[in-house]
Design goal:
This protein has 15 helices and 18 strands. The protein has 3 domains: 127 residues, Rossmann fold (3-Layer(aba) Sandwich), CATH 3.40.50; 130 residues, Putative Large Serine Recombinase, Chain B, Domain 2 (Hect, E3 ligase catalytic domain fold, Alpha-Beta Complex), CATH 3.90.1750.20; 161 residues. The relative contact order is 0.07. The strands form 6 sheets. Strands 2-1-3-4-5 form a 5-stranded mixed β-sheet, sandwiched between helices. A 4-stranded mixed β-sheet has the order 12-16-17-18. It is flat and about 115 Å long. The protein is an alpha/beta fold. One of its GO terms (molecular function) is DNA strand exchange activity. This is Site-specific DNA recombinase. It comes from Ruminobacter amylophilus. InterPro entries: DNA_bind_recomb_sf, DNA_bind_recombinase_dom, Resolv_N, Resolvase-like_N_sf, SSR_resolvase, Zn_ribbon_recom_dom. Keywords: Coiled coil.
Length: 519
């Protein structure tokens, strides 16, 4: 009998090469939402790809705040295509056809280019893998649906909102300071409303918005979202028609590129009188409006002119360590010598209420410059260590939950559209539709609130990380500073506390607190 020997392939015992899988997504144009959205999707795709032993993560490509209607305006998508052509990617995953391309022609063109490179694309929502397709017909149909759906959803949503504006049935999702929401209706929140009345009364006496804000901060009155009062936030209240019980709808609008703008007459606005209970009378509201207009005319400045809002680098950023009031700038005169100095506004009015005396502006500038030079010198030891600590903090559980919540919200939106379609065709009675629709609305509001809370919890740390990376980049390239740079102070300092006339504590936007001597 002949003996036959089997010769195995040379690579029979070699481990199978893993596919390099990249993910593509789009994120919000809002910086705060963008950071959370990006982290959420990155965590999702890293976990999703890691769950497949035959895959390895090849990167996340994302475009920021773009409508996606034209591929030429999506640099990350184009970069991903370039990396595919350079052999860096074997497989692509993306959320849906509408996220990959809302234009049928572009979608087919991109998929064809990738198929020529033998790189499949997997669309999660549609459960569609272009690597297993025998024809482009199904892809063409699905992408056409995605294109028309995105236009339809946008227009239907706008029509629905406009219709609710016109018939007065619009439900608020956000309550201004002084109000709270009850079933979508504005209800006076008395503990805040008393401060709204205080603001209007102070304005009637001739006090400026900056003076009113300073008084509120001195009294430690809590502002919206636990922030501090500013001239801008006071003026917003004084000009907001909701405090006299009226509502002006559509103050902003979204264009066809999904970008939001202030409405200066580009689209219709709707004004409803006596929409809800007023906090101040119409007479008081109109009188305050006249005072503001008269003041602007006297000083020849228009609304929104930042020249008078932040004249100096330290404006609105220096806080008294003794009483918590803001410092104000003044010119001191000693003999023939004149020099700018900053003084606690409470001490300036009444020295018995606060003993904190003035500090020279030049000394404050020197303290900041000294701090920056120390950071430039010890960048690796100080800043890099802080960055390592921030980036090791895990948000995976919250990011994972955000992903689950957003997917559920999408499912509920789809469910609502199906309900509307069924009722329109006469297969569902109005009473059942209303009941089901209300259940969806309640659950949607609940999930939206949970998602926003999760985002706010992690957004602070993400923002600090971005600010810290920016500071590291600057200190890594910069030489020692010889003079004070107001732009750098604005860029990196959130606020500074004057602990005493000899000590300044600088609170940086990245979360660091640095004490410097005031000489």
């Amino acid at each position: 009998m002949k003996k036959v020997i089997t010769i195995e392939p040379a690579n029979a015992h070699q481990p199978k090469k893993r596919l390099r899988v990249a993910a593509y997504c789009r994120v919000s144009s809002s910086m705060a939402d963008q950071l959370v959205s990006l982290e959420t999707q990155k965590a999702h795709y890293e976990e999703y790809i890691a769950s497949n032993r035959e895959w390895e993560f090849a990167g996340l490509y994302y475009d920021e705040g773009l409508s996606g209607t034209k591929k030429e305006k999506r640099p990350a998508l184009l970069q991903m295509m370039t990396d595919c052509e350079n052999g860096k990617i074997d497989f692509i995953v993306t959320k849906s056809l509408s996220r990959f391309a809302r234009n049928t022609t572009d979608c087919l063109e991109l998929v064809r280019r990738l198929q020529e490179l033998h790189i499949p694309v997997y669309f999660e929502k549609e459960n569609l893998n272009t690597g297993s397709m025998e024809t482009e017909l199904f892809l063409s149909v699905m992408s056409s649906l995605a294109e028309s759906e995105s236009v339809s959803i946008s227009e239907n949503s706008k029509w629905g909102v406009r219709h609710r504006f016109e018939n007065g049935s619009f439900k608020f999702s956000y309550a201004p300071y002084g109000y709270t929401l009850a079933d979508g209706e504005l209800v006076i929140k008395e503990d805040e409303a008393e401060w709204v009345r205080f603001i209007f009364n102070e304005a009637l006496t001739g006090k400026s918005a900056r003076q009113i804000a300073a008084t509120l901060n001195e009294k430690k009155v809590p502002a919206k979202r636990k922030g501090t009062w500013t001239a801008a936030s006071v003026l917003w209240i004084l000009r907001n028609e909701r405090y006299k019980g009226d509502c002006l709808y559509q103050k902003t609008y979204t264009d066809f590129r999904l970008r939001r703008h202030l409405n200066h007459g580009e689209v219709d606005q709707f004004y409803e009188e006596n929409h809800h209970d007023a906090i101040v009378s119409r007479e008081v509201f109109e009188a305050v409006g006249n005072v503001i207009s008269h003041e602007q005319q006297e000083k020849n400045r228009s609304e929104g002119n930042s020249k008078y809002q932040n004249r100096y680098a330290f404006s609105g950023k220096l806080i008294c360590g003794e009483c918590g009031a803001f410092f104000k700038r003044r010119i001191n005169i000693t003999g023939r010598l004149k020099y700018p100095a900053w003084v606690c506004s409470v001490h300036h009015k009444d020295g018995s209420r606060c003993s904190m005396k003035y500090v020279r502006e030049a000394a404050l500038e020197t303290a900041f410059t000294t701090m920056m030079n120390k950071l430039i010198f010890g960048r690796k030891e100080v800043l890099q260590t802080l960055l390592d600590n921030l980036t090791t903090q895990s948000h995976k559980s919250r990011l994972s939950r955000i992903d689950v919540v957003e997917r559920t919200l999408n499912e509920m939106q789809e469910r609502r559209r199906n309900l509307t379609s069924i009722m329109t065709k006469g297969y569902l009675d109005p009473a059942t539709f209303t009941r089901e629709s209300n259940e969806i609305m309640v659950e949607t509001e609940k999930l939206t609130a949970e998602r926003d809370q999760l985002k706010s919890e992690i957004n602070g740390e993400l923002t600090k990380t971005e600010s810290l990376r920016d500071l590291i980049r600057f200190t890594g390239k910069s030489e020692m500073l010889s003079d004070f740079d107001a732009g750098l102070f604005e860029r990196y300092v959130d606020h500074a506390v004057v602990s005493s006339r000899t000590e300044l504590e600088l609170h940086l936007k990245c979360g660091m607190k640095v004490k410097e001597t005031i000489e």
